[in-house]
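User:
Hi there, any thoughts?
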Amino acid sequence: MKADEFDEKFDRGEDISAELDLTRARRPGEEQRRVNVDFPAWMIAALDREARRLGVTRQSVIKVWLADRLEHHTTPAA
């Protein structure tokens, strides 16, 4: 499919997902890196309670809370 055909299909609101190769798609700035963090037992228990309450994983709770804290308390880069 030529680019102009692709653009026209997109502009008409048609589904273009079949035309895309998403196997190598990446979100810039969203690369994952693994880190290990040690928490006291009481903190793990509290995280697990909150995760159960929300119906998500412990990791999800940690990520959301950290992202929120960083978003609200980080000075923007100059």
User: Anything to note?
Assistant: The chain has a mean pLDDT of 89.
